[in-house]
Every structure is written in structure tokens, then in C-alpha cells.
Specification:
Radius of gyration: 23 Å
Strand order of the largest sheet: 1-2-3-4-6-5
Shape: elongated
Helix content: 40-55%
Largest sheet: 6 strands, mixed
Number of helices: 10
């Protein structure tokens, strides 16, 4: 995270878990979605999704948000850190599930809800040089190479102009591919997603409100502790992955493996104490009280 003279902002995943679920902050999410989808987005409500979990141990590398806009469309926003080779298939599953969940029994297929899947990815998915990809469904003639269009009657019946408007749309934001040069208003949001910084001159819709709302210093102390705990657990989980798949391969000798197991037991015991302390703080205890009950020094707890 950026430091120094720049404002210290919380990450977008934490904002999705906490701040953006509040109606008072819909303007921020509406701004981001409006810039991405190139249309005016008004959010009516946040919908519950299966993966709306508070514990980062349940879902440490993926955060999602499910919203309904004024057009009656469902927008799925998912943020993913770790590589998943079958992520494209999971996108399809998520959109399909949202469609079936919102289809009432006995309703005609013409009432199927439109789903827009927005995926913010911090890993390389597939091959491609761009950092934003859009996927839609189209039907191309095998012989004439023409695009199948809706008839005028279908357009009136469905209230849609193009065939792809009836199907899910997918957006892939490959954050690591962004070159940090913000030339458009959407780029300003991508810049924030990559660098956790919003410059004073940025003018994208909703982004300056995000700068104020996402300020770490403006959070209540209890919320700051919860955020710090969340970031710690993200780092811890990332370290586990690195240890298991990276350093573990270098251990060739039995004594090395033995030492590793012993270090693991010690680290596990410390992690258990830290977990207890974080849970107590989340329930309202002060860091001093939580550290005493967990058997830790408050200095150690504050340093993490």
C-alpha cells in the first residue's frame, strides 16, 4: 500500500465486504460501474450471495458483491487474488446460477434476468495484452458470416435491441496488465484498484467520494483493527501458499523437514493465539484486554 504524503486507502476488497454494502456509499459503486459499462448505473439494493462471508479464513482470496440495478439487471462483482485455471468456467457457473435463482417457477423464459459479471483479477488469466476484456454472446452465420439480429417484434417484446442483450455479459479486469498510465476515467478506477491510491486530479464518477470514504484514518478504531486483521490473514494465507508450493520443494534432507515441522508447530501456536486476539477485538475488546487473554504481548499484537 502506498505511504508517505499520499492518502492511505483501504483496499477495494475490504470496501466490498463492508463499506459498499451501505446505501450511503452506493454512489461510489455506481460510479465505478457506470465508467466500466458506459451507461448510467443506479443501484437499487445489495443482494445476498452464497459467498458473503465475514471470515477471511472461509474465503481469503475471493470477495464478491451481488447488486440489482434500476433496470432490473443483476450485476455480479468478484475480486480474485489467487490463480484459478478454471476461473472462466466458474464465471459461467456464477452467472447461470444467478439467472436460475431469480427465475420464478412457471415464469416464461422471456422474463429471465439479465446478468452482468464483473471480474477484478490480480492474476494472469489466459493470454492477451489488454487489461480489460468484454465477453458477449453472438451468433454468426456459417455461410454468410452475418450476425443474427432480433426481429422488430422481439425487440418490442423483450425491450432489447441486440441478441447479446439477452445473454450474460462478462468483464475481465486484469489488474496486473495495467501500465499505471490513466488516460481515461475508467483507467482512474483501474489505477486505484492496482495502486490503492486516488490522485487529486482524478475525475472519474464516484472516485473522489471513494477517496474520502476509503481513507483508513477515517475509520473507527474497531473497524481499523478489523481491517488490519483482515490484511494480516491475507498475508498469512499467501505465506502458507508460498511455503507449501515454493520453499517446500527445496527441502531435501530429513533434518530440514523435521525442523520445518517444528517451526510449523511453533508458528501454528502463535497463529492460534493471534486468531483468538483478533476475534476478541472484533467482539469489542481493547487490544490490551485481548492480548492478555490470548497470552500475547500487546506490543506484538500491535506490530502485526
Amino acid at each position: 500500500m502506498k505511504t508517505g504524503s499520499k492518502r492511505k486507502l483501504i483496499t477495494f476488497d475490504w470496501a466490498m465486504k463492508r463499506l459498499l454494502r451501505s446505501k450511503a456509499n452506493f454512489e461510489i459503486l455506481e460510479g465505478f460501474l457506470s465508467e466500466l459499462l458506459l451507461e448510467e448505473i443506479i443501484i437499487l439494493e445489495i443482494l445476498e450471495s452464497e459467498s458473503n462471508k465475514e471470515s477471511v479464513s472461509d474465503k481469503f482470496n475471493r470477495v464478491d458483491l451481488k447488486v440489482k440495478n434500476s433496470a432490473g439487471e443483476i450485476i455480479l462483482i468478484e475480486l480474485q487474488y489467487e490463480r484459478e485455471h478454471d476461473y472462466l468456467q466458474r464465471m459461467l457457473y456464477g452467472a447461470s446460477r444467478a439467472i436460475t435463482e431469480h427465475q420464478r417457477e412457471g415464469e416464461p423464459f422471456s422474463n429471465l434476468v439479465k446478468v452482468i459479471s464483473v471480474n477484478i483479477l490480480y492474476f494472469d488469466l489466459g493470454h492477451g495484452s489488454d487489461y480489460i476484456y468484454r465477453g458477449v454472446t453472438s451468433f454468426t452465420g456459417i455461410h454468410d458470416n452475418d450476425q443474427l439480429q432480433l426481429s422488430s417484434r422481439q425487440q418490442k417484446l423483450y425491450g432489447k435491441e441486440q441478441v447479446h442483450h439477452l445473454f450474460p455479459e462478462y468483464y475481465l479486469l486484469r489488474i496486473n496488465n495495467f501500465n499505471d498510465v490513466a488516460t481515461t476515467s475508467l483507467d482512474e478506477w483501474i489505477y486505484f484498484l492496482k495502486n490503492e491510491e486516488i490522485k487529486d486530479e482524478f475525475k472519474a464518477k464516484g472516485i473522489q467520494k471513494a477517496k474520502k470514504a476509503f481513507s483508513l484514518l477515517s475509520l473507527p478504531e474497531k473497524e481499523r483493527w478489523a481491517y488490519e486483521r483482515y490484511q494480516y490473514e491475507l498475508s498469512y494465507q499467501a505465506s502458507l501458499i508460498e511455503s507449501n508450493y515454493g520453499l517446500g520443494r527445496l527441502e531435501g534432507k530429513e533434518e530440514g523437514r523435521t525442523e520445518g515441522r517444528e517451526e510449523g508447530r511453533v508458528e501454528g501456536k502463535l497463529e492460534g493465539k493471534l486468531e483468538i486476539a483478533w476475534r476478541l477485538i472484533a467482539k469489542g475488546m481493547t487490544p490490551e484486554e485481548a492480548a492478555e487473554i490470548a497470552g500475547l504481548s500487546v506490543e506484538l499484537l500491535r506490530s502485526i
